[in-house]
Amino acid sequence: MSILAGIDLHSGHSFANVEDRHRSVEFIGLLKRLDAYYPPEATIRVVLDNHSAHISKETIAYLATRPGRFEYVHTPKHGSWLNLIECAFSKMARRACSRDTRTAPFGSAAVRSVKTPNHTGSTAHRAIWPILLGRVYCRLPFPVKARTVGYPAGRRGNPRVANSAASTYGRHDRRAGPMARPTRSDIGSCPPERRARRPGGGLMALVSSHRRSRAAVLGLAAAVAALILAAPVAAAAPSRLYVSKEHSSDANPCSWSRPCLTIGHAVNVAPAEATIYVDEGTYKEQVSITKELTLKGEDSVIDAIGQTGGIPPLASMGIVGYGLLVFGPSASGTVIDNFTVEHALGEGILVGGTSKVTIENNTVRLNDQGFNTKKTFECQAQGNIPGDCGEGLHLVGVTWSRLVDNLVENNVGGILITDEIGPSSHNVIAHNISRNNKLDCGITLPSHNALALAHPTKGGVYDNLVIDNVSEGNGGAGVGMFASIPGTASYDNRVIDNTLRNNGQAGVAIHAHAPGQNVSGNVIRGNMISGNGIDPDSGSGHPTGIALFSAAVPVTVTVSNNHIANEYWGIFRKGPLTISGLSTNHYAKSVTHHVN
Questions:
Q1: What is the pLDDT of residue 47?
Q2: Which helix (H) or strand (E) holds 305?
Q3: Bond preceding residue 143 cis, omega within 30 of 0
Q4: Does an H or E element contain 528, and which?
């Protein structure tokens, strides 16, 4: 297995493709991902070694198709270790490799999911990495999440693997830097069965002997990288809290040996920047987070059935009945990982008025139970439009956040990004599955704020990346970008490499309904589109792959390299539209008309 990865110098955002091999075709795939991620006018400077795949004829031929887009900066030959991304790989290797796991079979049942370097610690976005591109080889998918016991019985305080629950996915222990090991106070005097049920699991990977032979050289550089990572948070001392359905009480101190009974109580007593581990089980409650926390489940279920509460000021606006809420500027940096949220009156997960939130590895299902009633403001019909209760997973007025690897199913609608209380911008919606949300779209980016066009700091849905998702079997469009009333704006969003199939309306839809709106600059590229329905707003009248509609304003969009099948209209156009890339799309024989 190979990981082809890069880290952005300015933001710390990392890219990683897990491949069977490291050839030109895989490397070109990573370059294409970088090309899709950055604005078209940017020059991407890539620091990398002289590996044959980086300078092959195939790679050079691809670069020639993107003149001026990429600039190479090569490390000296035999000096690829000078590339500081090697520090990140060394750091991952020390977290992920153990003498006890080097002989673990490939495809072991312990392997649950492959994660990218972003998951080696949730503070990665804070680090300043003076490098862009590098690589690493592993014989197992690396890193991987495993349900292994981190602390073997009889060896308390001497972990076999790194403290995975804190350092693999969550915020590392800032008391001692990113490689902190648990202290005896963390482990406590609990019985062996409690230790075996500790949330999280270890990492297992095997680094090649060639990589190990450079361990001494990389060690010094990795230590420098560890200092870089630790520096921004060295003064903080967050707590760890534990919640369990067994041997627990909210009168307890939320320690490992004496856990809390409810998630809500742990959230209330936790200091900012704390990590809360929630054991498996069903928690019938509503959770509201207004400070920075990391909430990590172990296949934990938040069942919000019958919950009608809310918090100020949202409650006074009729926004109540959600399952899990992350709200306000103080909640910036919050992480929600590995929960199932179900049966809420409104949204399963609602994030509002904040930034840098990560929602990952969650299942959001069977929510919006108050659909088309007056139980909440969002559930009420608005004229002829039925209330959607906020759909399954809703971001409103949220920036620089990530929705990754979530399953959103059987709600009224799937993933919703809106701007009622401020702009929703610079977010990444990646690797999610939104399916069988029968009454609305799979992924929707509509603008509802009349100030969006004139004041981008007050509203608008823009510069969001929707990449590598599956949207299928939903009642509305697979992905939609809409402007509703004058002054609204949903623009400069990128819908790339998604699978959009068997939805009730068009696979992708862009609609502008009135003067004074902006839906220009959106990009629809590289999507697999098949078997979708009609687009009512544009009047397509037949199953449509991509529907582009403007009732009044000129609209400029890019639609390129999409693969469309099993549709009557491949692309249906109506209104004053300027479309780039139209000739580059691909149509199966099952498409009756390519373009109207």
A1: 86
A2: none
A3: yes
A4: strand 528-530
Closest CA to 289 of 221, 237, 335, 226: 335
Query: What number of CA atoms fall less than 13 Å from residue 268's CA on the CB side?
Result: 12
Neighbours of 135 (CB within 10 A): 24
Quote the percentage of the chain above a pLDDT of 90: 55
* Dist CA 83 CA 74 (whole Å): 9
Backbone angles phi, psi at 269, to 5 degrees: -90, -15
Q: Is there a contact between 579 and 555 (Cβ–Cβ < 8 Å)?
A: no
Taking the model in full, what pTM does it have?
Answer: 0.64
Q: Residue 428: CB partners within 8 Å, gap ≥ 6?
A: 401, 402, 403, 404, 464, 465, 467
**Residue 526: what residue type?**
G
- Residue ranges and CATH numbers for the domains of the chain are 2-233 (no CATH), 279-544 (2.160.20.10)
CA–centroid distance for 184 within its chain: 34
Residues 413 and 476: their CA atoms lie apart, in Å, by 8
- HSE (CB half, 13 Å, CA atoms) of 429? 33
| Amino acid letter for position 436 | N
Mean pLDDT for the chain overall: 78
Q: In what order do the strands lie in the sheet with 2-7?
A: 14-19, 2-7, 133-137
Report residue 354 as tokens.
Answer: 């904040």
- What whole-number distance in Å separates Cα of residue 407 and Cα of residue 264? 23
In the beta sheet, which residues pair with residue 443? 415, 479
